[in-house]
Write a structure and sequence with these properties.
The complex is a heterodimer of chains A (295) and B (217). Chain A is α+β, with helices and mostly antiparallel strands. Chain A is built from ten helices and four strands. Chain B has 217 residues and is of the alpha/beta class. Classes of the chains: A alpha+beta (295), B alpha/beta (217).
Chain lengths: 295, 217
């Protein structure tokens, strides 16, 4: 057990020695990996921050139902009250709506210029909480079929759209991350391949003198792992630097909207996960290279 | 210790390097293997550490059947053998000391014990004063002694050397053989390939003579 640990420590030390001996190459590789990883990581930071913003707005499952002139309000209200999917119901008459509009900021002049009230009577409905987009859409379709209904609008649709947009963003990000991860494995694969070629003599002699395959391979695994780790740490550095540069601008913009919003860095867990993921990708590249070029 | 019975080796391409070779080397025995170049000396020596496998017949080394040895068992076989290669295979990117340390690093030795063994091996071949030198700085004879130090650092019971005196002057060659004799005196089994007849005659040890892949009487 102690001998085994010592062998791993030695292999790690040998790998570190190799990295230190080739400082320029090591640094360049770390930069390639770091830049490649900072792209999806940066996208993740932006998305996580946007989602935080979106979640602050409540996702009220609200619908507006506009009536045709002369629609039978009482009959409609009776039917609506009978629907279990509707939790709340409020009637807004056209006069009331105009009043609200008049009170809304910056619209008084517009309203004053109107010769007659163009607004319809309306019901504002709130569906039972937890209704998803499909339920709301189904409800809206049924409401549209009622006599005297001119138009039904799902007010929370924008939130659903933002959610859908975020989903696309996440998918695009996952695809980007997968592509760059493959690139990272390829970079490590090639680095380790070159390393194996330059150490061919040492490998051959070691095998002739009784080194096991595991002994010969171990330093290369550490090499891949350490290189990946260095790249991951560099990616975190790049990300942190980018936020330091971006945040004063973001704060200024947010202040104009009366918000104290700014972009937050990755959580500790996410940062750790990024570094570990990067190290594992390096290890995978080394594994491919070793199984191809060392037998 | 080493037992060949009816061993043949045919390389891909149909060339017969060994044909029906049989001999036994007892523990502690010292034998020269000789013959013209191309007679099969190197092939015979390569069968012992399982660098090559016999095409037919059996090679038994230290009780292990080389022909049937699993790939994963080969490193452990080699650790118990001292091998001196014809082209020495020294590593010129590290010091004399580190060259000898290499075989000890495989088995995860304790550093202090390993350092002691490296110095003991270098001392035996008279290179202790040169431990920090790079092998490039050594003379031909010194490089050969370094190769021997590396071969014996694991204290093997069997030492196999392929043309260890090739390209050396008579004095350096004698020095090398004297080192082998000193290992023989402490019970190591030795098999030395050489085509140098004067050396063979001077030491009067057992001689295995190969001609066209066959062992002459």
């Amino acid at each position: 057990m102690i001998a085994w640990l010592r062998q791993h420590r030695d292999a790690c030390a040998r790998a570190l020695g190799k990295l230190a001996a080739q400082r320029a190459a090591t640094l360049l590789n770390a930069v390639v990996i770091g830049v490649a990883l900072s792209l999806p990581a940066g996208g993740y930071v932006l998305l996580a921050n946007l989602q935080g913003v979106a979640q602050r707005f409540s996702f009220e499952p609200q619908l507006s139902m506009f009536l045709k002139p002369g629609a039978k309000r009482g009959e409609l209200e009776f039917r609506l009250r009978a629907d279990a999917r509707i939790a709340q119901l409020r009637f807004v008459s056209r006069e009331e709506a105009l009043k609200e509009l008049r009170e809304a900021e910056g619209l008084a002049d517009v309203v004053a210029a109107l010769e007659h009230n163009p607004l319809p009577d309306a019901f504002v409905l709130r569906a039972t909480t937890g209704s998803d987009a499909a339920t709301l859409e189904a409800l809206a379709t049924r409401l549209r079929a009622l006599p005297g209904v001119a138009q039904v609008q799902v007010d929370s649709a924008w939130a659903q759209r933002l959610g859908a947009l975020a989903k696309i963003g996440r998918l695009a990000l996952a695809a980007l991350a997968a592509l760059l991860a493959a690139g990272l494995v390829a970079v490590t694969f090639n680095t380790i391949r070159l390393q194996i070629l330059t150490q061919r003599d040492e490998i051959e002699v070691s095998q002739l003198l009784g080194a096991t395959d595991a002994f010969v391979r171990r330093p290369f695994f550490y090499l891949g792992l350490l290189q990946g780790l260095a790249g991951g740490v560099l990616a975190l550095g790049i990300l942190w630097g980018a936020l330091v540069i971006l945040n004063p601008g973001v704060r200024e913009l947010a202040q104009a909207y009366g918000s104290s919003f700014q972009l937050a860095f990755l959580s500790g867990t996410a940062a750790l996960a990024l570094a570990v993921f990067s190290a594992l990708l390096g290890w995978a590249g080394a594994l491919l290279s070793v199984s191809r070029y060392l037998r | 210790m080493i037992n060949f019975s009816a061993v043949s080796k045919r390389y891909p391409g149909g060339q017969d390097a060994l044909r029906g070779v049989s001999f036994a080397l007892e523990s502690g025995e010292f034998a020269f293997l000789t013959g013209h170049s191309g007679a099969g000396k190197s092939t015979l020596l390569k069968l012992i550490p399982a660098i090559e496998r016999p095409t037919s017949g059996s090679v038994v080394v230290n009780g292990q059947n080389i022909g049937a040895l699993k790939r994963s068992a080969v490193p452990y076989l080699r650790r118990n053998l001292g091998l001196v290669f014809q082209d020495q295979k020294l590593l010129f990117d590290r010091s004399v000391y580190d060259n000898v340390m290499l075989p000890l690093s495989f088995s995860g030795q304790r550093p202090r014990e390993a350092a002691r063994r490296v110095r003991a091996a270098l001392d035996k071949v008279g290179l202790l004063a040169r431990e920090r030198a790079n092998p490039v700085q050594l003379s031909g004879g010194e490089q050969q002694r370094l190769a021997i130090a590396r071969a014996v650092v694991n204290r093997p019971a069997i030492l196999v050397a392929d043309e260890p005196t090739a390209n050396l002057d008579a004095q350096s060659a004698a020095h090398i053989i004297d080192i082998f004799v000193s290992f023989h005196q402490v019970g190591v089994t030795l098999l030395i390939a050489t085509h140098d007849q004067t050396l063979i005659e001077r030491y009067g040890k057992r001689v295995l003579r190969l001609a066209e892949g066959k062992l002459a009487a």
